[in-house]
């Protein structure tokens, strides 16, 4: 059965294809910035680790890179749009002290550094002020978070696919009729489930992103 987030992504793709044959404003662009993740919290055992808990895990800040493609409706609804937002970062787990009741933590008081790569694919609904030069906007969306966890003295290599919530606010400034620079702040959150390591954890990250978009049909 298709997850609601994947259904929304598929709907947005169909909307983009439809928009190319209408009078909608379409854009595509790239983005780069900085990811500031919160601690992995609420570590909870599943399967054989059911009932186990552990203290929060601190994550590293990192650069983030991505791309987006979207559209805004024409005429009276030019303030309303949608986009597909793709970006990734590497908020690796820091070497740190840990406590908990997981079997893997028996006799362990600290964990070694392990890589964590996050890829975010979101479908956002946007509301903007459709000014000729300055366009502030806000948005909300859902999507999929892909997490890839490396090996450490607490974990083995593992992957997670989870539904995510994406919140954003930004400002787009047109430097020509069809080229705009933008800056935006966004927050992404989800519950990661690492099946091979048999634990779940809550993930949340704040990101400051900047980029350029190219607009068609404006």
Topology, please?
Layout: H1 4-19, E1 25-37, E2 41-45, E3 62-72, E4 80-89, E5 96-97, E6 110-111, E7 116-128, E8 134-149, E9 158-174, E10 179-194, E11 199-216
Antiparallel strand pairs: 1-3, 1-11, 2-11, 3-4, 4-7, 5-6, 7-8, 8-9, 9-10, 10-11
List key phrases describing it.
218 residues; mainly beta; 1 helix; 11 strands; elongated
Walk across the major sheet and give the strand order: 1-3-4-7-8-9-10-11
Write down the Rg.
20 Å
Unreliable segments (pLDDT under 50, ≥5 consecutive)?
none
Strand content: over 45%
Rounded to the nearest angstrom, the distance between the terminal CA atoms is: 38 Å
Instruction: Report the major sheet.
Output: 8 strands, antiparallel, barrel
Structural summary, described in words:
With 218 residues, the chain is mainly beta. The chain is built from 1 helix and 11 strands, in the order αβββββββββββ. It has one helix spanning 4-19; strands at 25-37, 41-45, 62-72, 80-89, 96-97, 110-111, 116-128, 134-149, 158-174, 179-194, 199-216. The protein has an 8-stranded antiparallel beta barrel. The mean pLDDT is 89.
Give a quick rundown of the structure:
With 218 residues, this protein is mainly β. It has one helix and eleven strands, in the order H-E-E-E-E-E-E-E-E-E-E-E.
